[in-house]
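Lab notebook, bench 4. The sequencing result for the construct came back, and we need a structural model before the next group meeting so we can plan mutations. Quick request posted to the team channel:

Model the 3D structure of this chain.
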Amino acid sequence: MDVNYIDAGSGGGTQVVVLRMTHMFIISYSYLVIDYNSKQSIIVDPAWNIEKVEEALFKTQSSLSGILLTHSHPDHVHLAQPLADKYNCPIWMSNKEISFSGFSEQQLIGIDMTPWFVGQIRIQPILTPGHTPGSTCYLVGNNLFSGDTLFAEGCGLCPDMEAAHNMYNSLNQLRSYLTLDTRIFPGHVYDKPPGQKFSELLKCNIYLQFKNVNDFVAYRMRPVQNKLSLFDFR
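Done. Here's the predicted structure in token form:
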């Protein structure tokens, strides 16, 4: 476990445990969110290192009650089924992402944008197409789990011009849900650690500076940005 964040204002208190997951040259981040009162927990985008998940569950003395998936790419879903099988818990993904990707697991539950509770953890899904058509961010208390939609330093890759237009709209939509103090927990990190406040992103993230969609799309789709090897995963 790398870092713990405490959100005392969310339904009596939640804890976010940051899990740095590695596979070959790729590094991604999963997040265990624990309800203080019930000791129920949910995990966001689990992949690869199941021993880190089990260690976090043991150290926090929490029981895994569900799995949130922001989208269907392998580096975000790899451990979903093994964990669902072991802990007998549901897997949640947006209906739109399921339809787009064909992702299917025994415990999979398709969701719309209606919020729900696990213990006293209120989960607000926010459909944010762009990186994939059904990408979804999850607002839990004052914490946003943003997958590959929003990073501290940028936003997710877009496969085509339509997707880039959608990404622009999705980032603007997020503004209506977030406060300046909302902490952002992305799927990948390039420089700044997970848990940056949204106020910091508004200062340093160039993709949040564009005032019109055409300029955003032109910048997002410049060819050099679609080369993953340029990024230094941390």
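The mean pLDDT is 92.
Will bring this to the meeting.
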